[in-house]
Amino acid sequence: MQEFDLLVVGGGPGGYVAAIRAAQRGLSVGVVEKERPGGVCLNWGCIPTKAMLRSAEVYETVLHAADFGINVENVSVDYDAVRRRKSSVVKGLTDGVAGLLKANGVTVINGHARFTGPTAVDVYATGESPLGAEGPRYAAEPTGAKPIEQVKARDIIIATGSVPVQLPLPGADLPGVITSDGAFGLTEVPKRIAIIGGSAVGAEWATLFATLGSEVSIIEMQKTLVPAEDAEVGKALGRSFTKRGIKVLTEATVSRVDQAADGLKVTVDGAKPQQIDADVVLVGVGRKPNTASLDLDKTGVATSQRGFIEVDEKLRTNVEHVYAIGDVTGKALLAHVASHQGIVAAETIAGQHAAIDYNVIPAATFTHPEIASVGLTEAQAKDAGHDVVAAKFPFAALGRAQSYGDTEGFMKIVAGKKYGEVLGVHIIGHSASDLITEGALAMALEATLDELAETIHAHPTLGEIGMEAAMAALGLPVHVAPPKKR
Predict the structure, then answer these.
(1) Which of 23, 168, 352, 399 has the maximum number of C-beta atoms within 10 A of its C-beta?
(2) Largest separation between any pair of C-alpha atoms in the chain
């Protein structure tokens, strides 16, 4: 029996951050993790997809090298090399996390945790994933009838993340129908791929495979792609995808997938019912809490109808000494939110103060063009009763974007009309994921349009777009034509 001040179940971006912070506060800390440290984010989500998207970006840049006066011949994709580079990046980062845990004195216990009480677990050995080396091990049930370790703690943090949702779709079990996790097991670029779901996951895989040469169809049931984003951003991404040769079907649903002589046939219902031929069908319609094999009922913690663990502002559950962070809480299924929740939970357990503001959470989608946002969309701001002013500034009007050769997209600022307080920032365009930080900081510091506009931004940079968009929202744009007077 091992005993700790704090036991963290799950070593993802929430769990390992919580463990490190708690150890820094002087607590004895253990982490139970069934695969490599880093969770879905480092192993099967954020990092590997971005590594592969970077390969696609380089390939596309080289294809258009002549536009920059550079002549390149015989350009081709080595997909095995793309996958090897991805695995190398992942290994470097997960090894780094393992090193950080060790350096901070955190004990890592490899295996699958099952609760035996609110603050006690049995740890079991796990089998290999059905997907092999390219698949997450949470797909495998624990092996053996006896635990390999028993662990107790004064406090416990549940940080087991999420898994892809499986659609109850006829044909979902056919060979070639995969989730985003299964996509990592593909050993070649599919000739034809149909992607069900046009949110971040589906849109990123659509970008990757379309760039590498696949014939891509993407099906989304809402009016626009990335429906959680501002409507103008979703429409812009749809136009961009269409120009890139991606077949975009919105306000459409898939009713079934059938085996065909030369692959799969996807039946799409909507304004224009049709069938799509595909070699691979990727289902990317969301995620659910990864708690099915935890024996969570033995903790007594309360969950929502969808199975997410209910927590308060300090990440405390209804059971004393039991906390939950990250995707299992359903607050915002983002790695950086999990990390911040981990810090809040660890600081609370250690008797310190920390807080999280769910109104200021930046999000990024690594499509081409990139998408990033923080705060309210224009529609959300109006629905909340705000009298708003909204303005856009195009990347095409930036000298840096012109010189870089990527002028697609815009920044949109949503602000209060009376005081100019920033309510939301929405970007589609090059480096949107980096540029959104200014919007998040503006909201966190309660900045106004005047303050953004009066802040000197370096030139020529893409970052100038924040200043320019603020000036446009004030009705005083310098580098675009002024709005027409009514």
Answers:
(1) 23
(2) 77
Digit-coded pLDDT (tens) for 88-103: 999 999 999 999 999 9
Return the number of other C-beta atoms located less than 10 Å from residue 367's C-beta. 24
Which residues in 284-313 are b (16+ Cβ under 10 Å) and which e? bbebbbbbebbebeebebebeeeebbebee
Q: Is the peptide bond before 460 cis (omega within 30 degrees of 0)?
A: yes
How many CB atoms are closer than 10 A to CB 32?
Answer: 26
User: What is the Cα–Cα distance from 259 to 278, expressed in whole angstroms?
Assistant: 10
User: How does 20-29 read in b/e, with b if 16+ C-beta sit within 10 Å?
Assistant: bbbbebebbb
In the chain, % of residues over pLDDT 90: 88
Distances in Å between the Cα of 237 and the Cα atoms of 230, 242, 263 are 11, 8, 29
Rounded-to-integer distance, Cα 235 and Cα 225, Å: 7
Q: What is the pTM of this model?
A: 0.93
Q: Identify the H or E element spanning 179.
A: strand 177-179
Q: Name the residue among 90, 184, 89 with its Cα closest to residue 129.
A: 184
Residue count (the chain): 486
What pLDDT is stored for residue 165 in this prediction? 87
DSSP assignment of 342-398 equals: HHHHHHHHTT------TTS--EEE-SSS-EEEEE--HHHHHHTT--EEEEEEEGGG-
From CA 480, how far away is CA 333, in angstroms rounded?
A: 37
The residue ranges of DSSP E strands in 261-308, in sequence order, are 263-270, 274-278, 280-283, 287-289
CA distance 24 to 40: 24
Residue recorded with tokens 């990092």: 47
Lowest mean pLDDT among 133-137, 271-275, 354-358, 456-460: 133-137
Residue numbers annotated as active site: 459
| Torsion angle (degrees, nearest 10) of CA 471, 473, 476, 481 | 100
Determine which of 123-127, 267-271, 439-443 has the lowest per-residue pLDDT on average: 123-127
| Whole-number pLDDT of residue 131 | 52
Pairing of strands 422-429, 409-416: antiparallel
